[in-house]
Amino acid sequence: MIDKDQSSGNLLLSEYTPKSVLSTVRTTVRRPRFPVIDFHTHLTWSPGLDPGDGITLIAGPDELIPTMDAVDVRVMVNLTGGYGSGLRDALRIHAAAHPNRFVVFTEPWWNRIAEPNYSRFQAEQIEVAHAVGARGLKVLKILGLSAREEVKAGSLIKVDDERFDPMWETAGALKMPVLIHVSDPRAFFLPVDRFNERWEELHGHPDWSFYGGDYPGNQELQEARRRVMAKHPNTTFVCAHGADSEDLAYVSECMDSHPNMYVDISARVNEFGRQPRASRRFFDKYQDRIVFGTDAIPYAKDYPQQVFGADLYEIYYRFLETEDEYFEYAPAPVPPQGRWCVHGLGLPEAVLRKVYWDNATRLLGLEELTS
After folding, report:
1. Which of 44, 47, 166, 256 could link 123 by a cystine bridge, Cβ 3.0 to 4.6 Å?
2. Is 80 exceeded by the pLDDT of residue 258?
3. Which CATH class is domain 35-364?
4. DSSP code for 95
5. Contact indicator for 47, 86 with CB cutoff of 8 Å
6. Structural contact between residues 177 and 130, judged by C-beta atoms closer than 8 angstroms
7. pLDDT 10s digits, 126-136
8. Domain extent listing, the chain
9. Which helix (H) or strand (E) holds 138?
10. Distances (CA, A) of 252 to 111, 243, 261, 266, 280
């Protein structure tokens, strides 16, 4: 019998939590087929655009290692290691205390960009960061979307701004991979209306919308990154979140054109998993240039698809290793990135080993670690 209160069709979307009645295989993969390097995590947080060079600790080794051991994550890469004294703190807390378990990346000094000698200064700071132990450079999506010539004012700073050229070149010379996040899901650049498949996500986080104003479009941002990769062929760029995982044909074109381009799969099981045949072909073709990552943020209540824990890793392992069909891509009662389910890829062992371990060890110079 239909509930009278709901029979009129006026059920709130926030109250709609359908349960699938499909009878499908449900495989639990608690430990991966091979040891894992999580190339994309956030264990500290840096000040970003604000002045200063401090660092905020999100989770220390004692909080992380028990879960890492349980799910066989041998190494975590903390991308948001900051700069200056903040970077030294991040290195001390994680990498120095457990050198075989944690890697730390540095970040640009965004608050100095308006200074006339910024290009030289930033390149020099990459050298300093490398000397104290940083193994890579992380570029947040604020480049092209929120970093401006003046704090909270002025024009947006472009991804391919020539002031960053010495930074890219220095990272390449030091063999420091650049993990670069450009743009965001395509729905974030569309009107937040009844046609937007991420309406719930954007309704809950209206500041995530980049529709209107002076924001560039997704394609413009992607092409700017392409120009950077083409201009700096000796620098390795790891494009976060599958680069533009909603259009694997475009990403494939970029990968074919730019041999220095890699991708991580962090926070995009939801996209790869709803196009499993295209994704399987993509993983097969670029198996030497894909790295495992989750975008894990301990205690991230607003990001249920990224909360660090065994549940998160089990979803990734199930997605990569099994051919299970139509399952949840996040440990959350309502799908946080769109109301759909995903399908497993069932990757062969040779590909799994590269994605889980080999590709990351090569990029990070961790060949001394044995699996």
Report:
1. 166
2. yes
3. alpha beta
4. I
5. yes
6. no
7. 999 999 999 99
8. 35-364
9. strand 136-139
10. 35, 10, 10, 18, 13
